[in-house]
Design a protein that fits this description.
This protein is an alpha/beta fold. It is built from eleven helices and twelve strands. The two termini are 34 Å apart. 43% of the residues are buried.
Amino acid sequence: MPGHRVLTPTGARPDTASPRATARAVTDVCGLIGLGLAAPDAAPALEAVARDFQIRVTPAMLAAIGTPGDPVARQFVPSAAELEAGADTLPDPIGDLAHQPAPGLTHRYPDRVILHVTRTCDVYCRFCFRREVVGESGPLPEADLAAALAYIRATPAIREVILTGGDPLTLSPRRLRALFAEIGAIGHVEVIRIHSRGPVVAPERIDAALIAALRSVPVLYLVVHANHANELTPAACAALARLADAGVPLLAQTVLLRGINDSAGALADLFRALVRQRVTPYYLHHCDLAQGASHFRTTIAEGQQIMAELRGRLSGLCLPAYVLDIPGGFGKVPMLPGYVTETATGQYILRDHQGRQHAYRDPERQGLRPLAWASIAP
């Protein structure tokens, strides 16, 4: 509704409160050291990390960082732990390439496809499951986009097109509107869904031109990625309010991340804050087997315990579905009995949507810190 009051998370800092507030994104190790977000003696290791996976932290997220190593900083500031090769990690952990009928297109489920419209992001999350491909410059080449759209036109079972990347909202409103028009002209496509970090990490992008482009689509859902309540700065909340006031349906996805949000308290704060912004929590993803991201993984039992505690303290409106993308491209599985069976400590059988069974193993528990949920008061 127009004029809706912007509600910010309890205790949220003004966007300008951080001494790290800058006008430009930080894209290199020197910039991080200059802002006190990395130690000078860590530079050689971090430069090695940056050669494999780019660095980019927007002004909005720099302002959201309270102290080095806090839950916002850990998401975007590289760590030497990214150089450690996990035994189970994969370059394509959710199997995008295993279901690619055309360049830039993933068709895993019969009625929907993922269209990777760009490799560029506003920020580069250190746990990203597409870290092997994102960071390359520019949108999907025109010839590849044409081939992807031709496949969608020729496949009438496809009812939903999911735009991802990279981050689709890094594209200009003009380019987005043109893409929406092409997809909208395909008669059997009923829904366009966009997955983006933009409203949170680059809220200035949510302007009148972008909102007009989004509103040009009859049925569109925007799924916002946020992992911690501290990301929801006043500017992010204002951007979400602009979208909600314009009638854009808003959902949210979150990744369960060790040392960032792996407690019922942290996730309860986040999900309640999202609902206050008229954003419905949609998915809580178990961390994928991305290379360089093993230090972010929790165990399945930890995630299930956190969800059990959340069910006792949050309304259903605040509760997302806790899911795991089965490695290799076999789709999402809800972390519920009947889909997840523990066969030994830390070893599981996962049943996919077609009834196939897949072995899965937790990360090594040695060195994992205790979770905070055990000490949270009701």
